[in-house]
């Protein structure tokens, strides 16, 4: 297997991606903030399966962190990440320093932003003002620098996925957006680089997110379609974990992120909660259409 090429500058990476596209055709991008786990690696594997060449980016993007958030303590483990990516057969790693992406010559201030208005202030965007503006700006920078044919994102960050899909559609980026399923720990906790912040007790408490979603799934499968009732059931689960502070529990359209009152379509059930100081998110997608079809069909 050829060794992975590791670059920290834009021109080198741009040239390598151009070469990969010319000789091997389809280039897949997996954008990450590093501290890689099996969730990230599942995106890499999906990219390997669907593309001829894969570029991964590792960049802890300061513009998507709020002033009181965990930017400085976000886990950074580049050597370990490199070994994992090399094992997966990744061709190119782009791991730029902050100044390469946001040069100091701009007075360290990005003045051009990409904002998906109407989506960016929903769900996580409501709790984290400016977060999605940072995400869409860095993702569009990566799309311009690396020019991938396809980019792979986790369903774990469902609101992020909606915002990016809308950006790609509205700005005519020639990039296919591929969503990959949530990868979980054996006990059901969604994998996240932030799980490393949890102490032993918090790690146990964190399971309340998944428990609340499972309760909603069960009630949905039993025929409940009222979002208000499903949300009430989920909140009851949270009341059994008073140490965990619920940020939001919402039942929304997966594209517009607007709340839906009754589940009759594909619907996103999304949750965010603070376990100690750590904010965790999780979600599930309910398919109101095929559930209705199954109920209608004769047994
Ligand atoms: P991050 O490094 O947290 O910015 O995540 C980089 C990408 O990995 C995003 O597209 C995430 O949605 C995805 N990702 C993170 N955790 C998981 C997971 N548990 N399962 C699937 N994808 C994930």
Could you walk me through the main structural features you see in this protein, from its secondary elements to its overall organization?
The protein has helices at residues 10-24, 38-50, 78-87, 98-101, 124-127, 131-146, 158-170, 200-205, 207-221, 227-239, 288-296, and strands at 5-7, 27-32, 53-58, 92-94, 150-154, 176-180, 244-252, 266-275, 278-287. It has 299 residues and is of the alpha/beta class. It has a 6-stranded parallel sheet, sandwiched between helices. It has a 3-stranded antiparallel sheet with strand order 7-8-9. Strand 2, helix 2 and strand 3 (53-58) form a beta-alpha-beta unit. The longest helix has 16 residues, at 131-146. The model has no long low-confidence stretch (mean pLDDT 95).
End-to-end separation in angstroms reads: 53 Å
Specify the number of helices: 11
Listing every helix as H and every strand as E from the N terminus to the C terminus, the arrangement reads EHEHEHEHHHEHEHHHEEEH
Give the percentage of residues in beta strands. 15-25%
What is the mean pLDDT? Answer: 95
Largest sheet: 6 strands, parallel
Q: pLDDT under 50 segments (min length 5)?
A: none
Question: Bound small molecules, which ones?
Answer: adenosine monophosphate
Number of strands: 9
> How are the strands of the largest sheet arranged?
1-4-3-2-5-6
The whole-angstrom Rg is 20 Å
Helix content: 25-40%
